Records
---
Amino acid sequence: MVDHVVGENVNQVVDSGKGVPGNDAPGYELPLLLFGGFRTLIDRLHARLATEGHPDMRPAHGFAMQAVGVRGATASEIGRSLGVSKQAAGKTVDRLLALGYADRADDPTDARRKLVRLTPRGFDALARSAAIFDELRAEWVAALGADRVRDMEGALRQVVPAETAFHLDAPSWLGAP
């Protein structure tokens, strides 16, 4: 966020007050720190998944697999959950099929619809992800203390609207298909 040219601070308006005792951090740092925490967890998750038999798994796949859920979903439903077009969801679904994380089947309630369902490999990836996230959270607890982590989670629950807390459309607002 802060640019430097020949040792001179180019972004002085953004930096004003930074580092002065008693001043809060600049507002732009909060979303960057939250995103940095998210990115750290996701990157570490995928590094571990790669060592546990899922080297091709990407964050977009995890979001899509969550949208598929236990009962399955159509490409349109997946697209709505992810906040992307049916075509973009279809590309992600095609990749999940190619990697063996999902399959397609006729919808038993409507033969015109095709359901995307998770395969045992897909369920394995999600189960491993859940276990790894528990381990990563435990590492944060070890570093920060259980009370601080619970306070941080509680504070985020207070400020994040309930309808968006677990909404899976991160790919759409990050610009990914």
---
Amino acid sequence: MSQSPQATGNPAGEDPGQDNSAAAIPEPGSVQESELRDTLGTAIGMAQEHVLQNGGFLPFGITLSNDGELRIVLVTPNEPDENGHLDAEQMLADVQALLRQGRDDYRAVAIAYDVNLPEHGSDGITGAAEHRDGGVMAAIVPYVATDEGFTFGAMEPDTHQPTVWVD
């Protein structure tokens, strides 16, 4: 999709050389892990639906509210540039800012955005979930357009620096 950030799968502002995945993964079987998996899975699933229907998607967020409800967070894109491209990086920053503003009302959040994955030779879905208690979980799902539609690759773990529960 033409408005996709050109990235290697790491969220905006993250140092790709720094691996924080071991310290950030919650204890297996914990409520925290379950909530992260729910928000991340919802975000990636919705992104896959949008790719299948529209050929791509714009950045969005998923929240798990204190009352246990999953909700989507969307922002309106600014005007396209002179080449007709939307500023997806700014939209991602706007989604993250909205999630930070409402973080007291959430147990967990996830973001999803469409990226170019040069190492895979394809586009991809990047999803990252954060928990208010400090856990993070992130994944990439490569995809390619085919004559029949889109084919998704295997989900791969990724690293993620918290962007919502930070001071």
---
Amino acid sequence: MTRRCHLDRSRTREIALDRFPEGGEYACHQDTDVIHQRRAWIPDALVAPEDLEPHADEGGLGIKSSAVQVIVEVVSPGKRHQDRDRIRKRREYARAGIPLYLLIDDYGGQGAVTVSTRPRADKADWEDIHRVPYGTDITVREGPAKGFVVGEAITGAPRR
């Protein structure tokens, strides 16, 4: 059975990261707390080993950030939520050393997809950031999601 991660609040947009690449050891998970230095964040989706049990934090509240390979966030409506997804979570995931942060932003003008890689924990930022407007395919270039394409099937048509 193929599990799909749904990526927006209405649960209509799907991302086919279930086992990417096919047959790999990583899977897409949702409703999972990511724990780093006693702080918890709940991303819209994440890619981590299929079996999360060995990676549970000591308190059993979620999984250790060291097990997470990809974080996927869909920016939520409202300024407070947008700041959280675009700024606060971006910084925290970089501090945690998560290799890839994929941000799908319906509220950034024409809509945009940002792929951030090579986190700098000391600076709470990313060395490599690629941002494209909706309608432009962007391919993940490294990690367990290498080769995954974010395009119109996920973002919808280009906006003008």
